[in-house]
Amino acid sequence: MPMVPIAKKRIKVTASVLIVLILLLALYRSFLKDPTDVNRSEANLNKDHWAFVHPKIMDDGEKEGIHQKQQKLVNQIEQAKAQIAILEDRVRALEASTPRKYPQVKYLNYKNRKRILITGGAGFVGSHLVDTLMVQGHEVIVVDNFFTGRKRNVEHWLGHENFELIHHDIVNPLFIEVDEIYHLASPASPPHYMYNPVKTIKTNTMGTINMLGLAKRVMAKVLIASTSEVYGDPTVHPQPETYWGHVNPIGPRACYDEGKRVSETLSYAYAKQENVKVRVARIFNTYGPRMHMNDGRVVSNFILQALRNETITVYGNGKQTRSFQYVSDLVDGLISLMASNYSQPVNLGNPVEHTIEEFAWIIKKLVGGKSEVKQTDAVEDDPQRRKPDITRAKSVLNWEPKVPLDMGLYRTISYFRRELERSDQFQKDSRKYFDSPAVEYIQQSRQNFVPDKI
Ligand SMILES: NC(=O)c1ccc[n+]([C@@H]2O[C@H](COP(=O)([O-])OP(=O)(O)OC[C@H]3O[C@@H](n4cnc5c(N)ncnc54)[C@H](O)[C@@H]3O)[C@@H](O)[C@H]2O)c1
User: What is the reported pTM?
Assistant: First the structure.
């Protein structure tokens, strides 16, 4: 039976509606589709970026995958940190168990081994005294405030069972048990002792009282490091211990010269009144390795000027004289004096006398280089002649200096050369450090740093 026209029409309308619906559905799906379906390889490349820009369209599986990856990285970092901590512990244990290499020391039994305090033991003379007494097998305690001394001078003994380093200012009392005291603490070069004259006087008066008081309490023998400066600008030449000196009590050097004179007076007052066993060494100009680079004294000035090819400057006309002893000779003299029964002051110095001008030429010759020697203005209160009379040291201690000037200077020049190289290297390293991108970054971060409001 033929279809009626109405039914035909309905079928047509329904079909057209269906087609439109199918098209709309297709269009809708194409909108929702992830582009990764379109081009899988490209989508793989951009996956993380896509996930970041359109996080909403990541499905749960992908999110879970990324989370797992992050977790894995965090775990790996934690494991690496734990392993580094274990390795650090091992390095520390290894360092502690490996015995440090110390210079060879003699074994002394308890009867012969002394506990020796050296004030100013981290300084130039003190550190050489430490070396000799340690090698002899004694127990050495160094007390220093590091004003002019430095740990580096005694670092080779740090950790040794016979050695102790105490950071202390001797202007304050000290309570320890010792058998002998070498009292060396005091700045020794003019720029250092003039830097704070009141402190220099305190160190040489209050500091000496504290050391003499300690010696009295523990019945220790005490040696005071006095100086040829107690003779001032001498009118007697060479200077014997019986000469009372020619000191300007209000001049720029008085804080040191008079400080040392009071130090001697105190020593004999304690000896007389309290029966303290005192030894007084009047030390003349001493030189050698570990001298302070900028102590402003003739030896270091001339050597540094010659090593840097600068003009060697002689104060005044250069006719003033000095005698120089090498530090190992002084150390032998100090130890002999402490061991002796002699309680009057003893000069320790090298009587071979040179004019300052001669000395400048000797150093120029030993160093080489192109330095000129030139005269400059004289210094106030600069003593004109200085030469020890060492008759007393020879007779009571059987001591006299042994190291010839050129040998001592050769060792000292080598030391200064090494120190200059070290400081040049240090400057290069710091320049490298300050030019590095890391420092630039740190500096920038500091500039950009905004502190939290409190
Ligand atoms: N070197 C010489 O030519 C010479 C000459 C004559 C006398 N002396 C005497 O010998 C001693 C040692 O001289 P140096 O050349 O080794 O001098 P230095 O400056 O190298 O050593 C002195 C040491 O004493 C320490 N010191 C200073 N004040 C102190 C304080 N208040 N408390 C604790 N420590 C303090 C310094 O830090 C330094 O380590 C000094 O007493 C000095 O007066 C030295």
Answer: 0.77
